[in-house]
Amino acid sequence: TTTMENPHAERQAVLIERIAKNADKCTEVILELNHCIEEILRANAYVKTAADLVTKYHKNVQYNLEATKGKDA
Amino acid sequence: MPSNINNDQSQYVRLPTDDRKPIKPNPPRWEPSDDPDAIIVPGLDTNASVNDQIDYIEQLVTVKLQNVDENMAKIHHLLSSRMLPAFKNYAVGTEPVREAAKFWVNFFEKAARVRLPIYDELSTAQEQTIQHDQETEPTETETETESHTHSEGDVTAQPDSFNPDRTPSESSFMPGQGAVSSTPAAFSRHRSEQEHESQDSFASQASEDAPWARSLESPLVRLDRELRSLSVDDVPPGPPPYGEPSVYLEPSDRNDHSQARLDKGKSREVSEPLLYNVLRSGLRNKNEVNSANPPSARAGPTSPLKFRRKPPTPKAFNPFLPPQTKPEQWNGIVDLKKTPLTTSRHQGYSSGLSGPKALEEDDEDMYPPGMSPLTTIQLPTIARPTLGRSPSKEAAKKIGRDLISDAQRRGGKGTTESSLSSMPTPPSLQRYTRDGYEARRGPVSSEVSSSGMDTSLESLMRRVGLSTDYQGQGGSTTISAPSYVPPSTASRPVFSVQPLHEEEEQYYEEPHTPEPAPYVQDDDTVMQGQAYQEDLDDSFDSFDSFDEPEINDTAHPSAAFLMASSQRGPHDLDDSFDDSFDDDDGDERMPPVIPFDDGDDWFDDSLDDDGPTETIFGAHRYQGGGQAPMQLGMRGEQLLEDTVGIGDQLARAGRLPRSPTVGPGVEDASMLA
Fold first, then answer.
1. Which residues of B touch A26 (CB under 8 A)?
2. In whole angstroms, how far apart are CA B228 and each of A54, B259, B305, B395?
3. pLDDT tens, residue by residue, B590-626
């Protein structure tokens, strides 16, 4: 025998089902996004390395230049 | 993480203006209370019957569920429609940056001869270092870092370059990082971090925040930090101030090193201590060094940074000190021409030996203080083959190889232009390129020759027929096995005389086409609009269909061949097909061999061999006599003349053709130039 809550419960069940489905899809999208970001991150780390290298090189060169200049002068 | 990055580099990066609506903060969460009596449901009519209230509540629940569902759908929609593409576009857009960074990292790697571990290599490095033995050190840091490394290890890693000659532990064996941290450096680093509240780079901040953030920082930053930490504790020797990582350099005291110099020579930070240790083996604390100092390429897990303890030689013994300077004042700059070993002899030495005796025992005793006897040092070596190969040399080799393969391939199939240059060739030069030639062939082949060309066609065919004789082996084969008719080849004034079989294949069909219309420069101009790239990149077929509607009365190969005499210039530009070129043949008959720069082959079919009597320009054109086999000329010469002096030649030939491009000022063969 159906109880009074049935109509509510039924409707709510349907809604919950939809919610769960959406949540799943969202999860997948977020996972994809994560992968994307991860790749970007990897690339960025590389870029950061390169930038650091260049910076250090620049600093060193500057220092050495000054040192050399000082020595010559 | 993004916020960290921004904080660190705010001076370099301008944040984009944030003109989005501010996000409303979430409404306060509803905390379910334990006491049912205390639950307040807004809107509930407490006076109604219980069932009604229940219904009402149920409805509220339903509505809330609906909202939740709607929000989830919205989220999903937003994510997939805006976020994901945005990220992907970003990734695609920054691809060039990545390539550049990769290039420069390689550049620096090769310059310093060190392999820079990148993010991905950490995980693999971890696994290897963990297996190695550890020095007796507090394991607390070890466990701490290990736990961190596990998360890093989850990341699937594809190490860029693995240098088998260097153990991963060397480079990635950073104290405090995933590397097994049984080094005093790690210890001191932790200490220093605790003292100094972390360093500047965001990575160091991140390292406290999340395990994976540790891997974000570049290895150089780690090295840097490490060195700084070491400098806090004791004076690290640091790399020598001068340029080359010379083997001989004795890293004596460098107390007044600046921070910048500490970092100089990214590789030297790793290799110098090793050298340092080896050279100082005589002076160092035996227990420290000997136990943990395997020479050269350390198969063991010990980190070179381990040995950065107090400098074993006091400052005063600095052999590089210029005379009469205080050791503290030494600025680290050394004249490499005078090394301690060479100068010590002249200066006389307190070795306790008399003059002649000292000379005899030069090698052994005349060491400046603080320098151990010369020993053969096994320096950490990287793959030797790479030493001599600078990227530029390798690039040059590659280019050479490409050229060679191009030449070979062109002989084989000439369907694609394997040019090293990715730039589209201007129309004036397109005839010299194989692809352009091929591309033009397609559409033209379908054309029907105008009536006027019949005679020339016949002559052409005859010529070709005759030419095959001259061609000999080459011609017969080509005629028999032409791939297709390249009608547009007529436009190509350039061709090589040598009857290369392969090359002739495609072009040779021309004589058979019933369209001996002279090649019209229309081809070039028309095709200009279509993007030169098509010439270079598209296959013949694709271009064929593409071009068909546009090219109408292009010249036909025969004409081009006929151009054995290289009268091609004028004909190329001719708008209208006209036979007149037969007569108008310039007096300047360019040598039939019109070499291609890139080697090829176009028309070998040899127009050159019109036969002594028949030419498209009329019979007995070649009154010069049996010049059937065209004289071979310098390959580039023709092209040179073509491009450089074509205008003059044309003028001389009296055949300044009308440029197909109709327009003011376009009158002569300037297009060719």
1. 72, 75-76, 79
2. 19, 8, 12, 38
3. 444 444 444 444 444 444 444 455 555 555 444 444 4
